[in-house]
Amino acid sequence: MAKEVSSDGRLAKFFGIDSSKAHGDSQWTADSDAQFEVIGLGLGRTGTTSLREALNMLGFGPVHHGVEIYRRPDHRERVTEFMHWLNEHPQETRKPTDEVKKRLRTLFKGYRSTMDMPCCDMVPEMVATYPNAKFILSLRDTEEAWWKSWFESVGIHFDTGLRRYIYRTLISSVHLLRRMDDGTQEIRFRLLREYGSIGPHIYHEHNQHVRDLVPKGQLLEYNVKEGWGPLCAFLGVDVPDTPFPNLNEGAGIKAVYLGQQILGAVTWAFYVGLTGAACYLAVKPQAARSLVDWGLRSTGLRI
């Protein structure tokens, strides 16, 4: 069973933006007809990476997670296109049509569960499309704890200040990172439409939105500090003998974003250096001829 090619590579590892260590390997396969059975609607930075691994360990994989957008370029483009379409048709988010449901089932075919963005930001669509699923609302201890963790890490996509300007300028030299950020902006537009602004208030408003829409008996409100017990009881499975996973701490994700910016800066430096060299050779044709002659002598070629 062939997996879609991952976008993680040597450069990603060298600059510290490889996500595989924190998130585990993708279990998705193109020939699977699986559909969501467990859906996480908790916002990012509420233990979604640990929950992703926990669901895999409990047999509910493959689990979709924001990192899949990083790994699967074709999938990333389809998700971004769909989120853009939803932003242009907001009525479809309030009362999802059969067309929306069909597109969602196609887009996420092959996954049995989901955690994190973008699915956690499509609450009405998830509830309407998967009415028999079990839903998990992952929580932090306080609104303040969530906001601090979220804003200091993934919040760089949602900020409007200097930090955001510098980040976008640097990563715009790398196609993969630029397109990832484009997709995240579609989520930002949706959050602004639904909550009016980006701030700590989103935490409670989003969570209440989930409580209002998910049918009684199908929702687990859960803090990863509770461990296996409540999660396994909700899913109807035995508690594993292994410790509950604890992944993707704040320092790690901050390092990822720093690595992205370093990679962008190095790429820009390469482009600027290459352009400068080309301009110099264009105005100094004798230097260009000398360079060609040197290259020919070095390789032993003659013209």
TrEMBL record:
UniProt xrefs under InterPro entries: P-loop_NTPase, Sulfotransfer_4
The keyword Metal-binding is annotated on this UniProt entry: no
Pfam family, one: Sulfotransfer_4
Keywords: Membrane, Transmembrane, Transmembrane helix
Transmembrane regions listed in the UniProt entry: 262-283
Family annotation (PANTHER family): P-LOOP CONTAINING NUCLEOSIDE TRIPHOSPHATE HYDROLASE PROTEIN, P-LOOP CONTAINING NUCLEOTIDE TRIPHOSPHATE HYDROLASE
Protein name: NAD dependent epimerase/dehydratase
Organism: Cladophialophora chaetospira
